[in-house]
Amino acid sequence: GAGVSQSPSNKVTEKGKDVELRCDPISGHTALYWYRQSLGQGLEFLIYFQGNSAPDKSGLPSDRFSAERTGGSVSTLTIQRTQQEDSAVYLCASSLLWGVVDYGYTFGSGTRLTVV
Amino acid sequence: AQRVTQPEKLLSVFKGAPVELKCNYSYSGSPELFWYVQYSRQRLQLLLRHISRESIKGFTADLNKGETSFHLKKPFAQEEDSAMYYCALSEGRGSTLGRLYFGRGTQLTVWP
User: Fold this and answer.
1) Which of B3, B56, B100 best probes binding to A when mutated, by most A CB atoms within 10 angstroms?
2) Does B85 touch chain A (CB under 8 A)?
3) How confident is the model at residue B2 (pLDDT cuts 50, 70, 90)?
4) Does residue A2 register a pLDDT over 90?
5) For residues B102 and B87, what is the distance between their CA atoms, to the nearest angstrom?
6) How many helices, marked H, and strands, marked E, lie in chain B?
7) Residue A38 in contact with residue A90, Cβ under 8 Å?
8) Do A45 and B101 touch (CB under 8 A)?
9) pLDDT tens sequence across A55-76
10) Which residue of B has its CA nearest to A111?
11) Stretch B26-47: mean pLDDT, rounded?
12) Is B86 on the interface with A (CB under 8 A)?
């Protein structure tokens, strides 16, 4: 597609429920990243997919968080048993693997998650 | 360890005044540095890259390896510059990792 697409744009969920956030990267971008943006915390790295390699999951805050990327394209971030502290904007970005230095990331518009 | 530090959460200046958003980094190799900007209700987007030594919207940033800084500057701020600014670091071209490390951001407000 023309840009990075994320859905839903807003999600309100009850504490304890599971949520799935979707990211559709730019076609041809082999690298995909998930970040979390919250007030006072800036951009917190969550997970990074690089082609067919094992993802870098070092930023996932707990085992309630998981992500997958199917067919090297669309990615889904799943948060199980949501807690109020999970409320944030979840940003997805993609890049050409060897293009980060030259071109940086292209970000999606994010999913605003509110856990009530 | 925090690789990128932006010491100011908030910064306010009047229109026409110079503005400098500070960014310091911690990395022993040869990093590449970036500034990203997020205007109200818009996506986070790349503003400028150290590697291209460009000036975008009047902003420039110089990499100072001695001081490990990459401060963003503009001589005459405009109201439309009001936004959240993030400094980011890549571990460089030789790295197989594409990950960017972001600072916590500085919210710039330019008053009329």
Assistant:
1) B100
2) no
3) low
4) no
5) 6
6) 0, 11
7) no
8) yes
9) 889 899 999 999 999 887 899 9
10) B43
11) 90
12) yes
B17-31 pLDDT, tens digit each: 999 999 999 988 888
- Report how far apart, in Å, the C-alpha atoms of A84 and of each of A43, A46, A66, A110, B104 are: 18, 17, 17, 18, 21
Q: How does pLDDT run across B81-100, given as a tens digit for each residue?
A: 999 999 999 876 555 556 78
State how far the Cα of B90 lies from the Cα of B85, in Å rounded to an integer: 17
| Helix (H), strand (E) at residue A100 | helix A100-103
**Amino acid code (one letter) for A52:** N
Q: Name the one residue in this structure whose structure tokens are 């600072």.
A: B103
Cβ-based neighbours of B28, under 8 Å, separated by 6 or more:
none
* Two tokens, residue A31: 């690298």
Set of chain A residues whose Cβ sits within 8 Å of the Cβ of B100: 33, 100, 104-105
